[in-house]
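Example 9 (inverse folding). The structure is encoded as follows.
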């Protein structure tokens, strides 16, 4: 019995005694940050939408959605739909929109 108990993987022991959150903190390869309050961490993502529209030249195109999500509440803080592929510029513009919307919602200046 002693050999069985001492042969248990230390990671499994941490999970059993300290829980899955501590296990992830110690043993996962990717460090995941968790926001403790709203607007502490925002995440941006892009996805090509499954719809077709006609662009300004009359050709069919699939638009891209760029969204910024509040990590704590999972609420969408800002978004934009564009026919251009995602870029740092589109992300910055959506971030600016989200920041202004957040400031307006909290009663701060949108400067």
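The amino acid assigned to each position is listed next.
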């Amino acid at each position: 019995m002693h050999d069985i108990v001492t042969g248990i993987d230390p990671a499994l022991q941490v999970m059993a005694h300290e829980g899955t959150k501590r296990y992830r903190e110690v043993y996962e390869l990717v460090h995941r940050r968790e926001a403790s309050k709203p607007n502490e961490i925002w995440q941006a993502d892009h996805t090509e939408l499954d719809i077709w529209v006609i662009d300004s030249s009359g050709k069919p195109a699939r638009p891209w959605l760029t969204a910024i999500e509040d990590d704590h509440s999972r609420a969408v803080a800002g978004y934009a739909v564009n026919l251009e592929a995602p870029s740092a510029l589109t992300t910055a513009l959506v971030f600016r929109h989200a920041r202004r919307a957040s400031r307006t919602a909290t009663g701060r200046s949108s400067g």
